[in-house]
Amino acid sequence: MLMGQFFCNNRPAFLLDAYPNAGVAFSTSKLRGGYTGNCMKVRRSSDSAEMDFGFKGDVLDTTALLAFVGSGHGQVVTWYDQSGNGRNATQSTGSLQPYIAISGAVTMSNSYPAIKIFAFNQLATAYTINKPYSFFFACQQEGESNYRLIHSVDRSSFISPVRADHTAVRLAYVVQADEFAAAYENVLVSLLVGNATLSIFKNAGAVTLVDNTAVDYGPLAFGEASYNEPGGFLTEFISYPSDKAADRAGIENFINEHYKIY
Length: 262
Known about the structure:
mainly beta
């Protein structure tokens, strides 16, 4: 029986109910049973009007979204944090806003609504992430470039599974991993940072590291507003203020059961 975002088999139906206490949680699907807020605020291209959109069947209400956008584009003004901490990802400058609809069609990745991040697009938060911490995110990156999909506002850190210069993970200016995905591949990335060392996983498999030294991340952002490079799609991003190594497999299973990434 399918309940909420994930299969409920003697466990909570939503990821954040099974694994609570996230620092931030963004998704185009509902992540917490008690969450009553919206998914995102969208600006339409025809007249720059803005509107909030919630969930329908625990996924972004794309019917209402397309009724609002019409044949034009829909750009994301705010991606709402479902963790309960109010650390929303925002962009007030229209030209820098990523997309959720293009020419009257929802942007999709692996059959799910996904935020499309083009060159010079960025959503930024005021959340500064220090060790220990964990990231879990579902993404699909486009052709090889030097774009930074998961970024930090201060530009010290980034995670981009596909990179032309082969540097896929750099945290606080320390290179941790080389390129570990193919262009347009749907991947679930897990980053687990403890107080001393870190580990990275792609689709539940360990990534070979260049350096495993644990370092801080900095102020979280999605996309890079200063480089003209191909970007990609981001469907979900969750961060915990702890090393979730003990829960990694369970969290990955929750996410993969929904998105069927691997």
